[in-house]
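The protein record quoted for completeness.
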Amino acid sequence: MAQHGRRSARRWAIGTVAVGALLAGSVAIGVSASAGASFSDDFEDGKSDGWSKSGGTWSVVSDDSRVLRQANAGSEHARFFAGDSDWTDYTLQARVKPTGYGTGTDSAVTIAARATSATTFVRLALLPGNRAQLQAVSSGAVRVLATASVGTGTGTWHAVTLQVSGDRTTATVDGTTVGTASGGLPARGRIGLSTLRATAAFDDVSVAAGGTVTQPAPTTPVPTAATAPASPTATIGSATATTAPSPTKSTSASATPTTSATTAAAWPTATGSVKVDETTEVSGTLDGGLKRYFGIGDGGQSESQDPMFELANGATLRNVIIGAPAGDGVHCTGSCTLINVWWEDVGEDAATFKGNASATYLVDGGGARSASDKVFQHNGGGTLTIRNFQVEDAGKLYRACGNCSTSYERHVVLDRITVTNTKTVAGINSNFGDTATLTNITVVGDAKKSTKICTRFQGTTPGNEPTQLGSGPDGTSCRYSESDITWR
């Protein structure tokens, strides 16, 4: 491991480091942060720029050297993420010092790899009682892959590694292999540090790349970091831009929407990061150049979080990656357009549409992941069109509000949508006159055809819950035929 005396601060580099030898047996702890690593942070600059926080109380403090500390013992899930969502094969290593475990059975201090959201990743967990586990976490559900008796005591620094290659992962603590497991892992994702009802310090975090991602060629011209904003009139509160990595990609091309119902666009690579501390108000057009915006809210489902972006009537938001936390996503106060917007980890909602009865909204391209409830919430009136869009790991892609103070008639048009591990595509209120028109819908990996394409509800008044009436095409409210749905 790298020593405390160095002042290397933070480095991002594009390249590939051979780590194949790590697969031969126990993972050795010897790749220093300066030996060609794709990412490293020893926090010696006193900052944690480039990381995104979800929960907990995080700060850089002195502990012989500068370290990252999570000090909130009561935080159920305190998470710190960095890196790129398209990283595939790599070795993550760090020094970790648990400073306090809780009394519950779920108390842990962890490092994570291939994090596709705040609740999906593979992780190495240090547990009380001198135990460690290799775990796969999917939408918050934990699957134990391996357990070992190793030193995990408080007040002691432990050298930990987590290596992912293909569908195989290996974890070590102080040179002892916790376990190796195959199958059921996320294919790619960022790195993370976290505590569960525990406190800890982290230092000397580094990533050594061990694979290459080849993106499918996009079918339309792609935006790049050089794309000039189209005269945005946006105010970004206390925003700080940093450079984002792309260590394992063989191409830096970013994806745009496809025009096929059966081929989803590749998720784009962020061209940079923007930490936002208050809502960004947009009037006119804001082109984000595919930077990742993050920093508002707690990453959870709590109501009344501030939005990351608030769009005035007629505003356009384009080429933006919304990371975590992102509060209540995007609010459209009137008609609006969202083009090539990607939500990596939906918190409360991805976007809420609040215009009047004549408002029109367009979502063209992009995608959303990890929405435990809804992706798009339609609280106002008017018509929302969603096309060339993909959704993964969600409750509902679209929901017309069933108990808002004003019972608008709402309409949604969905075309060329790719759906993966999502319970419902559209939910509407037939008694309010709502309609959902669906064409070119592709449902991936649902052999039992359990995804509901269109569900009808009996809308009600504030404080009450809508009653589900039924699902499927009816020619009136749910407007589609079976030929509009492809099960793949």
The domain at 234-487 is CATH 2.160.20.10 (Pectate Lyase C-like). The chain is about 0% helix and 50% strand. Residues 11 and 121 are 24 Å apart (CA to CA). Residues 1-37, 211-262 have pLDDT under 50 and may be disordered.
